[in-house]
Design brief:
Helix content: over 70%
Distance between the termini: 22 Å
Structural class: mainly alpha
Radius of gyration: 18 Å
Oligomer: single chain
């Protein structure tokens, strides 16, 4: 996201942000452990998804302040829905929702996911992407917390010390932004 904001938004990124970004990235690499048996070629797909996500968050700043947040938010899920229908049609068979509980979970997922995207869109319209990028690494930490809370997964051996580096990167940015 930082690289895209430099290219597309002509944003200036200082040594503190680069340092925080590098620290968070090293933390993510420690957690993911590329080169280990757990890493596969399919790991490239989330990287491509991250590039697409970064591009969408950086380009939202290109819209003027007269562009309605609601309209921008409408375009995003509409395009995602079209893409999802095409992808589902090409890669899988249709399967009905098996229970009301599953339907409720899917509905909750869509509400929380959509609200999260809305908040992210608003954040990226108000702040430079390079200032917000290190906080994206907190997703690894929250995935760990939710995995432990809901599924009783505890991958402590693979999460530490990488998570400390990620938290340190976010703290560095927060400290630097509050100091400025």
């Amino acid at each position: 996201m930082v690289l895209l904001s430099i290219v597309f938004l002509k944003e200036q990124v200082g040594v503190w942000r680069w340092s925080a970004l590098g620290l968070g990235f090293i933390g993510a690499l420690v957690i993911l452990r590329p080169g280990s048996d757990a890493f596969s070629p399919y790991a490239i797909l989330p990287i491509l998804a991250a590039v697409c996500y970064a591009f969408s968050m950086v380009t939202v700043r290109k819209f003027g302040s007269d562009a309605s947040n609601a309209l921008l938010y409408l375009y995003s899920p509409a395009a995602a829905a079209v893409g999802a229908v095409i992808l589902a049609g090409l890669t899988t068979e249709f399967s009905a929702i098996r229970s009301w509980g599953d339907g409720g979970l899917i509905f909750a997922m869509s509400i929380f996911g959509g609200t999260g995207v809305l908040f992210m869109m608003l954040a990226y319209r108000m702040a430079p992407p390079s200032a917000l990028a290190p906080f994206g690494y907190f997703g690894i930490f929250t995935a760990f917390a939710f995995g432990w809370l809901f599924f009783r997964e505890m991958p402590v051996d693979t999460l530490y010390p990488g998570v400390f580096l990620i938290v340190a990167a976010g703290a560095l940015i927060m400290w630097r932004e509050n100091r400025a």
